[in-house]
Amino acid sequence: MKVTRFCVLLICTVVMMLVACSSEEVDTEAVNEKLEPVVINNEGFVIEYDQIPKQAVSLNQHVTEIMLALGLEDSMVGTAYLDNEIYEPLKEAYLKVPVLSEQYPSKEEIVAVEADFLYGGWASAFNEKNIATREELKKLGINSYLQSSSVQVGPTLEDIYSDIRNIAKIFRIEERGEALINQMNEEIEQITSQLPEVTEPLDVLVFDSGETDVFTATQNFMNTLVEMAGGNNVFADIEGNWATVSKEDAVERQPDVIVVIDYGTTTAEQKIEFLKNDPALSQTPAVQNEHFVILPLSAASEGVRVAEALDILAKGFYPEVFE
Questions:
Q1: pTM for the whole thing?
Q2: Hey, what CATH topology would domain 202-317 get?
Q3: What percent of the chain shows pLDDT beyond 90?
Q4: Domains 5-189 and 202-317 share a fold
Q5: What is the C-alpha to C-alpha distance for residues 221 and 60, in angstroms, rounded to an integer?
Q6: Exposed e or buried b for every residue in 23-62, given b needs 16+ CB within 10 A?
Q7: Do 45 and 145 contact (CB within 8 A), yes or no?
Q8: Per residue in 183-199, pLDDT tens?
Q9: What CATH fold (topology level) applies to the domain 5-189?
Q10: 72-119: per-residue pLDDT in tens?
């Protein structure tokens, strides 16, 4: 993969920020003696955090990266469920945390590591089929937090920042949280300031998966990213975060660009080959002009990689501007 000057500067800046964060170690034993409880209403589940978590487990990549970006690796006893390679500036910190499972760990594995806090990125983390419900975890003495910006419809940057602030409050590192948010804003500004003025945004289809139908982003954060990068999500009119639409409907909306979400066992290149060979989808302007943009799911999710996602999308949408 070609490393742009922006990406090099971005990685260097983030590394310096993370080193600064990590150097501010929290003596949880001493702090816990004089803590005021933090009460958070998180997706209708009210939890009073009267202690700083010391044995946390992150359950999805984008929330793992939030914890690492906040310098909390020493407070983690496990992580799980990578979609892509871990964000480059966070790899060293990530290697300090045990990987409990390729996907979700079992309830027994969570109990075995004596976890006191679970941080889930998707609602699927907290059900009986995977680990346990949040109510059951609470009975086991395990607090939890679900990334609100990943489950609400139409999340914004401020919604992600609200999640970061909540995690910072729970771990009593509010200053680190604000520093991370400020850094993200600066990185995002570096990208958006270079975007051309667009009178007619490119029509964009987000292709997650599908063979008989198309599973696509509607009003989730990918829609927000597409708009911020100067595009128009052709299925933004459908309520909810995701939708399965027919190939015919996708063709009818004539996307100029297809954003291919990269994760899982089917590679982005395999997805593109499918699009090229499909009798219906191959008739879209995007496929005929081979205008594809590959976006890692971990960058497209509601985490710390917003600037990276915008960099990929903006350069993919308007390559002539960034040559």
A1: 0.87
A2: Rossmann fold (3.40.50)
A3: 82
A4: yes
A5: 16
A6: eeebebeeeeeeeeebebebeeeebebebbbbebbbbbbb
A7: no
A8: 999 999 999 998 888 88
A9: Rossmann fold (3.40.50)
A10: 999 999 999 999 999 999 999 999 999 999 999 999 999 999 999 999
Query: Per residue, what are the HEC states of the chain?
Result: CCCCHHHHHHHHHHHHHHHHHHCCCCCHHHHHCCCCCEEEEECCEEEEECCCCCCEEECCHHHHHHHHHCCCHHHEEEEECCCCCCCHHHHHHHCCCCEEECCCCCHHHHHHCCCCEEEECCHHHCCCCCCCCHHHHHHCCCEEEECHHHCCCCCCHHHHHHHHHHHHHHCCCHHHHHHHHHHHHHHHHHHHCCCCCCCCCEEEEEECECCCCEEEECCCHHHHHHHHCCEEECCCCCCCCEEEECHHHHHHCCCCEEEEEECCCCCHHHHHHHHHHCCCHHHCHHHHCCCEEEEEHHHHCCCCCHHHHHHHHHHHHCCCCCC
Answer for the pair 181, 187: CB distance below 8 angstroms, yes or no: no
Mean pLDDT for 297-301 is 93
Per-domain boundaries in the chain: 5-189, 202-317
Give the tokens for residue 254: 């004539």
